[in-house]
# Entry
Amino acid sequence: MKTELLTILRETDGYVSGQSLCEKFGVSRTAVWKGIRQLKEAGYEIEAVQNKGYRLVSVPDLLSEYELKSIRKTEWAGQEICCYPVVDSTNTRAQQLAEDGYPDGTLVVAEQQDAGKGRRGRGWESPRGSGIFMTLLLKPGISPANASMLTLVAALAVSAAVTEQTGQPAGIKWPNDIVMNGKKICGILTEMSAQFDYINHVVIGIGINVHNESFPEEISHMATSLFLETKRRFHRAALIESVLERFEHYYAVFQKTEDLGALVREYDARLVNMHQNVRVLDPKEPFDGKAMGITPRGELIVDTWESRRLVSAGEVSVRGVYGYV
Amino acid sequence: MKTELLTILRETDGYVSGQSLCEKFGVSRTAVWKGIRQLKEAGYEIEAVQNKGYRLVSVPDLLSEYELKSIRKTEWAGQEICCYPVVDSTNTRAQQLAEDGYPDGTLVVAEQQDAGKGRRGRGWESPRGSGIFMTLLLKPGISPANASMLTLVAALAVSAAVTEQTGQPAGIKWPNDIVMNGKKICGILTEMSAQFDYINHVVIGIGINVHNESFPEEISHMATSLFLETKRRFHRAALIESVLERFEHYYAVFQKTEDLGALVREYDARLVNMHQNVRVLDPKEPFDGKAMGITPRGELIVDTWESRRLVSAGEVSVRGVYGYV
# Structure
């Protein structure tokens, strides 16, 4: 009942009478009172006024199923939500849930990861309560050869959501890092289980640094958090909801053609490398050039002094000739 | 000690004295006698003659770690072996072992699968003791885009191993079914877990129908077993070992260029569709043509009356215009 109570309290501008809650849910006053008490214990500030009813004053920065569901506006993303205080890795957990039959759109959220995964077997710092550690499970009916583009779809969603929620531009460092003022605030790790012509499932892990007040010295030159960049605190559930809504939007566009054709302009507009000098760290032969945006397949277009080259996401790293981005 | 005992008994043409076994292993006569007894209990026929020693007379058709290890000649495939009486699916089990850190080359074998997996979410009939249900775990340092070719490498290995062991040609129906006299004796299911530029692991599941004396009516027109085709019984461990040895060989060739360039001729020689009329079941527009072999990327070359077309493995099904193959 906590989800429903919260939903009504949130939707109501003013007081909700205990009587109307009883009628709505077909339960006793005691049951309503008990639900309200549980919410208060969880950190929700709820004012109770004689003859008026209940009013939601403030909400805690809580990642619970009922908090997420009470603000949910998505159609399929996050219809199933699994929240954990601690997991090894939200991607690993989501993969297990996929094997157990959890549906397309299942969302996994954790307050802390003990073995958060980064790219190529590296780790991802995931201290308790500091950020968003979420994974979206997809079972897309697309070709495995097109699945790598999903990570760019996710980058678009996070860039748009963070920009909207914070009011500060959060750009994309190709292919899928999200940066603010030149430092990374979000990493995305897409993993796929596939037969050679058939996707079993895809998990898109998104780690956003929200409340971190500092970073270990070895990464502090390139990592930052929303708090460090804005000096403000953000409600993580609202940010997650915003990411999911935007992911649904971009994913629907992607699915029409199974490529990024209709998203290239927006991606390029968010691309911090755009028209910047970049060094392409091709293991065979690194080269410098100017980034000119992406192709409909998600490749980075790099103009060198002699030719135009296309760089496949993941084959190589790209960095700005000056500094991190 | 069973592995070592068996290895010596196998290697010896004649009798091995109890005394030499004691010295070899540095154990007592009782310990040797105990090991021999355990092997006898498992079904090995071992003759014991006063003053001569032990002689291996016959071996059971057993899929145990020590049986497989005692005949092993591979370099890396099957260095780690996990045998089970029953599993849900050897592919699923191998994927779990991969997550738990089991190495490249780990072999999973089961006497029975409760939920054997076929292509595209279909099942695979896996009754107890009837066949080979094995999965080879790989952690290849290749691009995910090239992983689908591994399933053709596996098809080559099985085709060669079955042909060698049975003395009857077992051809390949593109891309990766193994057929004898026009009916399927083996299916291969390759699954991959990958980041978009990095393979976590690949599992290659191989199911070979060995002892089956009949099949359910709905598949009996297209499925067969080694027993049904040859009226002979085969030793499954020897067949597994042969598959692994040949896989090692073809895999080494594949890895040099990360494609099938150097294997095209041999693959085409084993291809039952070669120079046959085929129907390509392209969901958009099926078409007929003549199969002309594969490309170095594993695509099937199909000549229609107006043009040459390349068919990607997995995108479509291909069947002979007449009958199953």
